[in-house]
Sequence to fold (188 residues):
Amino acid sequence: MILFVDSTVREDSRTRRLAERLVSRLADDEVRVLHLEDEHLRPFDARTLARRTQAIEAGRWDSPLLAKAAEFAAADQIVVAAPFWDLSFPALLKTYIEWISVIGVVFRYSDDGRPIGLCRARRLFYVSTSGGPAETDPFGFGYVEALAKSFWGIPQVRRIAATGLDIVGADVEAILRAAEAKIDKVRP
Fold:
């Protein structure tokens, strides 16, 4: 199963355009599309966090508070659509990361305190666009890459990006087509 985590909100999102192309390239299996805007996930408050902790401690793995984590951990491949906003990614994605970061589902700790990833996925693609120059993205992609490799156990993490789209005089379609050409070379 391919899990497509879409944190875009604009109807004509350039990030979604690229991510959908990638998903269609990879899709020889079931695709689960998760439009984060439609999920209405809220950041954890003390009460919700306590309820989640109780579910984990009681081994109630079927709790709705753990469902997003279970879905994420079970995916064979993951595609994240995350536009570059304010030097990072949309808050919707950070909230989603809170919801999936469940000990015992997505990761566990070894006896010496090292995180051990429990995710099934071998690949995570991070698809992004930006209006300005964002050739490196340590606060968006870098954050997700570190979590994927260090906590989630996903060994292959790749960023596909189209940058500089809103710079005066930019050939937006040419930039997007160049990103699409990279996508077309991805092995399913």
About this structure: The chain has seven helices and seven strands.
